[in-house]
Amino acid sequence: MKNQERLQKIKEKRLLYGVTLRKLSGICGIAVSSLSSIENGKRPVSEEMLERIEKALERLNPDAPLEIIVDYVRIRFPTSDINHVLHEVLHIRKEIMIHEDFGWYGYSEHYVFGDIFVMADSMDEEKGVLLELKGRGCRQFESYLIAQERSWFDFFRQVFEEERGVFKRLDLAINDRQGILNIPQLKQKCDREECVSRFRNFKYYSIGELKKKDEKTGMGNTLYIGSMKSDVYFCIYEKDYEQYVKLGRPVEESDVKNRFEIRLKNDRAYLAVEDLLCYRDAFMTAYGIINRYVRFVDREEGKERRYWNHSMEWDLFLNGNTGDVRLTMKPEPYTLEKTKNWIAKQVAPSLKLLMTLDDLMGVSETWEVIENARLTKKQKQIIRQQTEISEDIGSACI
Questions:
Q1: 158 in a domain, yes or no?
Q2: Burial class for 27, CB neighbours closer than 10 Å (0-12, 13-18, 19+)
Q3: Among the four 51, 302, 309, 381, which has the fewest Cβ within 10 Å?
Q4: How many CA atoms lie within 13 A of 257 on its CB side?
């Protein structure tokens, strides 16, 4: 596409999005007068400059708003009756789950289905039963909530009011699908003391940099605001790069550019759930927490730091761009995709080697090994899990 055609398309998009030249100027860092001349073809423009303007404009696309998801849940139920938790709270049949004779957090056993973990049988009776859902577990559980015609609000209300469950951890993640947040720039603002925060410290990791085990987020730029040992801290990272590392998905194909995670534990998690149930507005809860602890500003000489105005990008993020920011469910059924990826990378080449040698030698030893392999009880249960549909798995046992 020729430059003039691209410039015309930029202008049409800008008007369609309802974006002023001044607003676009602030995002792409080009003076309003220069931007106007470029848009109208009165000033030559380089390929690099065109790409810069196009990327900046897409960050203002009203059809790609921010979204909030539940990304981590850990709840302790004050009961030792695991059947009650599975059947009456989660609505998942016990017989479909895999039982393991070990656990974490002081529990001696657990039941698992994909990434849904339920721990029980603690030496300390006060620990009761513990539910843990990490990111994939939340996505999987949403498949069952939808099949049960329930929402996170419904589930949290039952846990909170009827079961008297204790929320040990809750993560709310804000997906930035346009790339509103520029994480390296946020880090620079922290360095320049243009981050006004209740937190005393931050950590930043660049692409390919080694991280501690409990801080590993994959390839990409990551900014931690606050201490990981506290009951509230934030993690902002480049989700598209993380997906590239984990799944091999090209960065440009990722539907989420950045992620802002609000990580809450103990009383902070409890208060957040209480707020969610009171207002049923995830935007109010999530952004209320963010505004309480951090804001990014532009330095203004002659003014006290606390009076500096928000940076334009931070205002865009806080205002949810131009669309509503709501709690979204992104259900993903339990699959063996991780196992398949491991086989493709680690096993398949060796297996193909052996089968090729079998063909050349006129034997079938490799197939015989596969045919004679015996499945364990756990593997047979996984087959059962994979062949049951969500409605059957997620139906309460009576």
A1: yes
A2: buried
A3: 302
A4: 15
